């Protein structure tokens, strides 16, 4: 039963990692957009940092679940 649970958790964490990575890249593009206001660019840069942290967290959790298989 634990194997099934760990497999499901690995898939879930990997999916969440992918979502965070996609969001991070989108925010990086907004932060680089010279047509966007300074406030928008700063907010996007801050969000990209948060997304990177989330992406790393989900990667570590997925790896932990994967090792438990």
TrEMBL record:
Organism superkingdom: Eukaryota
InterPro entries recorded: Glc-repressible_Grg1
Composition bias type Polar residues, residue spans: 1-24
Residue spans of biased composition, Basic and acidic residues class: 25-35, 48-69
Segments for region (Disordered): 1-69
Name of the protein this chain belongs to: Uncharacterized protein
Species: Gomphillus americanus
